[in-house]
Design a protein that fits this description.
Layout (H helix, E strand, L loop, with lengths): L11 H17 L4 H4 L3 H12 L5 H16 L4 E5 L2 E4 L20 E11 L5 E10 L14
Antiparallel strand pairs: 1-3, 2-3, 3-4
């Protein structure tokens, strides 16, 4: 079985912190760094990791895609894409630079993940790709809405 990792990020220490962060997310099912960390030191470690310019979502997606590719080998696979949004209605002060979410009022992000699903049993194999969009230029026009 593959060791869970977020990526290499050019350094073994950053890779180890990324693996610890991923393990915490998998075990605690939250994305709140304060809840994920076991101590103040680990909170700082996770925050420093996420703020490091060498740590990128691109590296995380490439790593996830490679792992999924290995797990999907020899299977009949469906690639399923969905769109979701994450709103931060109570955290506007902390989300400076975030554009409006789907409600057009509160800051938010749009997520477009692509999952590999086993066609035989419907089980999720893993993440194939993903896009995170920050609509920082204001709301999208309604020109393409169906009536």
């Amino acid at each position: 079985m593959d060791e869970a990792t977020l990526g290499q990020f050019g350094d073994k220490r950053r890779a180890a912190v990324g693996a610890a962060l991923l393990n915490a997310v998998q075990n605690k099912r939250t994305l709140c760094v304060h809840r994920l960390a076991e101590s103040r030191n680990q909170t700082l470690q996770f925050n420093n990791f996420l703020a490091n310019p060498s740590v990128s979502s691109h590296e995380m997606l490439v790593t996830a895609g490679r792992t999924t590719n290995r797990h999907a080998a020899g299977r009949h696979v469906l690639a399923v894409m969905d769109t979701t949004d994450v709103l931060f209605p109570t955290q506007e002060a902390n989300k400076r630079g975030f554009g409006p979410g789907s409600d057009g009022v509160h800051p938010g992000l749009f997520l477009h993940p692509v999952l590999a699903v086993d066609a035989a049993n419907g089980g999720i194999i893993g993440l194939v790709d993903g896009i995170v969009l920050n609509r920082d230029k204001g709301p999208v026009s309604q020109a393409h809405c169906l009536t």
